[in-house]
Specification:
single chain, 526 residues, alpha+beta, 9-stranded mixed sheet, HET, Heterokaryon incompatibility domain-containing protein
């Protein structure tokens, strides 16, 4: 086991209302952990520093820096010690010593003795240490015994029966923090004693008490399940009927369902899970645009150097991430979830990057103003796209791949109406018209490329068929218009950009399989 040095030690009495500054005591580029035994047994905040990655058992916290505030009805749960702040992280919430007591208790109950908390284990006033830790963040969470999620933040525990305005599931970094660890527990306020039994057709839920009649811990899967379903819950002190516990707050169910799809789809180890990860990333927000990339790179087995990218340069970091994924044998899975969103200017294999912010939701600007991305995406329950290609990407973001396709010629324009897209098309003839998502109408060129001439070409590029996830939350349905395709246009010789998309009936699958395969260089246009 790595030998550690205690670099910071302060009694909890002295910690109250103080500002903790690790800078004079810590060495950049080292791992640090909080000692839970010292915290609980001796009322001392002790931070250990390790020369290399520690091999001991520790828990890690997942939370948001701006969480639930303390009001008159919740002030009593702060305990006798109050809060403290961290130098360099003053923009975040003060840390409740009482919440740390609950977390340390859950840590000890999980057979670990140390705790990783970014505010205390990263030198918040040192840019080099921050960059070094970001590059290792995925491994920090992957190696923990338990990840303890604080949906309400670090000031107080969420009260799930009150349907509070929790934002944890909307934040970029929290996605990686629950996909990397071997076990994830959700810590929440709970005053109803021990779990007795539950009954439900739509939700599974059990929990264990952490501090009696004050807090409890449940699995991530159960927290997601009970957010969407209803159950009868019998506890030591109360019987709940038709209970829905909003542990993740008043959020769009799209966030909950997408995280369920990731878990159900095999996470990053399979194509269904990977597509759901890209989808979830699009819906989440962060302080700096580049964090949207850093927060998922480890999930895909990629490590990028944060020194190479500016805080606002999400596009360059995205290209770097995509190139590494494809080099490692992955697919261009991002094509699927963003297919119905406007293409990114200069990187059209990706959708337009959302507006992100320190507080709030990821949004896109539409004709109706800024709207949450979660409201613009189709329901994740419709499924994942089977047939997404592999490929390569150059350093300017052009994706080269091969797929079944056909040349198109324009046939007019109509107003977009998603409910009527191509539902009348049962076979392809010389007169068949296909309507794209932008309302443009096309015919498939009967003679193919040979008769098309030298002008810039337009293609329908077939991507695959929607396949449902297995989770019972999504139900079972067969979508007769489950084929998906891209509308791409040539803007210079053999270089294409994505313009729109097609929703096509399954009846066209035999035709698609007979189509010629083309190689495309998709990106731009600049």
């Amino acid at each position: 086991m790595s030998q550690s040095t205690i670099i910071f030690s302060l009694s909890l009495h002295s910690l109250t209302n103080s500002v903790v500054d690790l800078t004079p005591h810590a060495t950049p580029g080292k791992f640090r952990l909080l000692d839970c035994c010292q915290f609980l047994d001796n009322d001392v905040l002790a931070i250990h520093e390790f020369p290399d990655f520690p091999s001991l058992e520790y828990a890690a916290i997942s939370y948001v820096w701006k969480g639930l505030s303390v009001n008159n009805s919740t002030a009593a749960v702060q305990g006798r010690y109050g809060t403290f702040t961290i130098k360099g992280a003053e923009a975040g919430d003060p840390i409740s010593i009482n919440v740390l007591k609950h977390v340390c208790t859950a840590t000890i109950q999980s057979k670990a003795t140390y705790l990783w908390l970014d505010g205390l284990c990263i030198m918040q006033s040192n840019g080099d240490d921050k960059a070094w830790q970001i590059g290792r963040m995925y491994n920090i969470y992957k190696s923990c015994t338990l990840c303890i999620v604080l949906p309400g933040g670090i000031q107080r525990l969420v009260q799930p029966e009150d349907d509070e305005p929790v934002t944890w599931i909307q934040r970029s970094w929290t996605l990686q923090e629950v996909l990397a660890p071997p076990r994830v527990g959700i810590l929440f306020s709970w005053k109803y004693g021990e779990y007795r039994r539950s009954q439900s057709c739509s939700a599974a839920f059990t929990y264990t008490q952490v501090i009696k009649d004050e807090s409890a811990l449940c699995s991530l899967e159960h927290a997601l399940s009970v957010h969407s379903g209803h159950l009868t819950l019998v506890t030591e002190q109360k019987v709940f009927k038709h209970l829905t516990l909003k542990i993740f707050g008043r959020i769009n169910d799209a966030h909950v369902h997408t995280l369920l799809a990731i878990l159900d789809g095999g996470r990053a180890g399979s194509e269904p899970g990977t597509q759901a990860i890209w989808r979830s990333s699009l819906m989440r927000t962060c302080t700096y645009p580049v964090d949207a990339v850093y927060s998922i790179m480890g999930v895909f087995g990629v490590t990028l150097d944060p020194h190479l990218f500016k805080q606002g340069d999400r596009q360059a970091a995205t290209v770097a991430l995509a190139r590494e994924i494809l080099k490692n044998g992955g697919k261009a899975s991002w094509l699927a979830p963003g297919l119905q969103l406007p293409p990114c200017k200069g990187l059209s294999s990706f959708p337009e990057f959302p507006h992100v912010q320190a507080v709030g939701q990821a949004t896109l600007t539409t004709e109706d103003g800024d709207r949450p991305v979660a409201d613009l995406l189709p329901l994740v329950g419709k499924g994942w796209l089977q047939g997404i290609p592999m490929g390569t990407m150059d350093d300017t973001g052009y994706l080269t791949f091969s797929s079944k396709a056909a040349i198109l010629v324009p046939a007019g324009h109509q107003s977009p109406s998603g409910d009527s897209f191509n539902k009348h098309v049962l076979q392809v003839t010389d007169e068949t018209q296909l309507t794209a998502g932008d309302g443009s109408v096309w015919k498939i060129h009967p003679d193919g490329e040979e008769a098309h001439g030298p002008q810039m070409r337009t293609f329908i590029v077939f991507l695959g068929s929607l396949t449902q996830y297995n989770s019972s939350v999504f139900g079972r349905r067969i979508d007769p218009w489950a084929e998906r395709a891209m509308l791409v246009e040539e803007h210079e010789a053999r270089k294409f950009h994505r313009r729109s998309y097609f929703m096509l009936p399954l009846a066209l699958k035999p035709y698609i399989e007979r189509c010629q395969s083309y190689t495309f260089c998709l990106g731009g246009p600049v």
